[in-house]
Every structure is written in structure tokens, then in C-alpha cells.
Amino acid sequence: MEIQKEKREHLWGQRFLKERYLWLMALPGIIYFLIYKYIPMLGIVIAFQKYIPSKGFLKSDWVGLDNFQRIFDSPEIGRYFMNTVIISFYQIVFAFTVPILIAILLNELKLEFFKKIVQTLLYLPHFLSWVVVAGIFYLLFQSDGQVNHLFVSWGLDPINILSNEHNFRGMLVLQVIWKESGWGTIIYLAALTGIDPELYEASKIDGAGRLRQIYHVTLPGIRSTIILLFILRLGTVLDVGFEQVYLMLNSTVSEVGEVLDTYVYRMGVVNGNFSFTTAVGLLKGIVGMILIVTANKFARAFGEKGVY
Fold first, then answer.
1. How do 49-50 and 61-62 pair as beta strands?
2. Burial tier of 261 (Cβ tally within 10 Å: 0-12, 13-18, 19+)
3. pLDDT tens-digit map of 25-50
4. Whole-angstrom distance, CA of residue 182 vs CA of residue 101
5. Distance of CA 253 to CAs 3, 162, 168, 238, 248, Å?
6. CA spacing 20 to 30 A to 193: which of 26, 38, 147, 219?
7. What is the pLDDT of residues 158-211, one digit of tens each?
């Protein structure tokens, strides 16, 4: 046993020496994740305490699962949870599928110059902050905004989007589609380049048109990428974008627009209830992990690679 252990250690040492430059390149990323991802996880202990900043982690009173009990007893949490799930569901159905459609359409374009122009225009909104996006939407859709001026000039009635609870969730999804869809197509376009062109030639010989080629060649060719990104998206199903929702939220739409992220901010940062909001965040992480593991098992059961 000792000989085998020494042999393994020797092999690991040789491998590390051989790959030392790769480890050196990975070192900044490893340090980043250690400092900003793993070390802060020690703060999870706050969820099981009645945390008081002046006392710190070590001297704050231990309350066990009381904070989690408060989550299930709180009448507000249920509404915020449903708002989060509904908005996230809309984003998965629409914002997740739009980049796939855009990538397929761009892949069908034959004029490379026009294709690059379209790609650039689609990518640009990604580099705008949510503050800028919110400002643009306020200027366009407020009661005396440009859109309503246009409707009035056409003899139509003005519309109320920013303070209409029936339109608020749809507006959030449209913002995500406009801002992130172009950037999301990069991964799918990269996956499309891996499809063998001979498959398209064979389908043409069999008499398949463009739509049938997309259905029988293109979509199966990027299916593994779609499933992988879908599994990762399920892991953040309870994260719908704090900054975006917080900037667009107002008192008239809070009934349908207040989500877990904004609730955590209001209760934790504003009201100083750190223990309760840490418990909410931990519960969100547990739900995301369960969804990822479950979806990955289903993917592997159907012959896909999954995340791991």
C-alpha cells in the first residue's frame, strides 16, 4: 500500500510539474474564486444566529432553524416567491429561447458583411448597464414619453406600462430579451460551427428544404449545448436580476413586481435583519442546487452529457 501511495504521489508530482504553466495561468482565477466565492460562504453561519454586527460571528446568539421557520411562517414570502417563479418562468420560456432562434437565423444568412453588422447591433445592448436600460425605458414609456406621443399623434390612446401591474412582468422579460439575447447567441453560433457541413449536403440530396434541415440537422447539432445551458439556467431560477427589478419597481406594481432579491435587500440592507435574509439566500441556493442535480440526472438518463 505504501509503495502504491508513493507511486501515485510521484505521478501527481510529475503531472503537476508538466502542467505547471497551466496551473500558473489558472492561479488568478483560483485566487478570485477563493476570495470572492468560497471564503464568503463562511457567512452562512449567520442564518443560524441572531446576528448582531457589534458582536460578530463568534458572540452572536445561536438560534438554530428559527430563521428558516420565520420564512415559512411569513405571509409575504409566499407572494414574493410566486412573483419570482412567474418572472423566471417567463424568462425561461421567452428570453432563453430567443437566442437560439437568433443564432439559427444568423446561421442562415449568406452575406457575411450583413451578418456581421446584424451581430454587432444585437451584441451592443449587452454592454449597457441596467441603470442605462432602465433610463431608456423610462424615457420611452412614461406617461409623457416618446411612445405615448407617437400613439397620440396617430389618434390612439396612450398606454401605461411602467405603472400597470398587468404589463410589468412582460416589460421585464422584454428588457432581458433586448439586452441579453444578442450576447447569448455567441455560444449557439459557436456550437453551430461544429456541425458537419456534409450533413446539410446529405439532407439536400434527400430533398429536405431549409426548415427540415434546421429541424433534423441544426437543432440536433446544438441540442447538447441547449440542454447544458438550460440546466445552468435552472440553477438560477430564483434569481431574476435584482438590479433590473429594483430600478423598475414602483409602488403601483409592487404587488406583482416585488421578488425575493428585492425583499432580501429591503429586509437585510435597509432594515438590518441580516440573519433572516441570509437564511432566505441559503434556501435559494439549496433550491437551485436541487434543480441542477435533478435536471442533470434527467439529462444523463436520456443520453445527454449534462453538466457533470
1. antiparallel
2. buried
3. 999 999 999 998 888 888 889 989 88
4. 11
5. 69, 8, 7, 19, 9
6. 26
7. 888 788 888 889 889 999 999 999 888 989 998 988 888 888 888 888 888 888
Q: At 57, which amino acid appears?
A: F
Name the strand (E) or helix (H) holding 49.
strand 49-50
Instruction: Report which residue type is found at 107.
Output: N
Q: How many angstroms separate the most distant Cα atoms in the chain? A: 88
Whole-angstrom CA distances from 277 to 44, 240, 261, 268, 270 are: 11, 17, 10, 6, 11
- Measured CA to CA, the distance from residue 92 to residue 25 in angstroms comes to 35
User: Whole-angstrom Cα distance, residue 176 to residue 181?
Assistant: 7
Q: What is the C-alpha separation between 210 and 200, in angstroms, rounded?
A: 9
Tens-digit pLDDT profile for residues 60-119:
888 888 889 988 888 888 899 999 999 999 999 999 999 999 999 988 888 888 888 888
H/E stretch holding 50 reads strand 49-50
DSSP state letter for 35: I
Q: How far is 307 from 295, CA to CA, in rounded Å?
A: 9
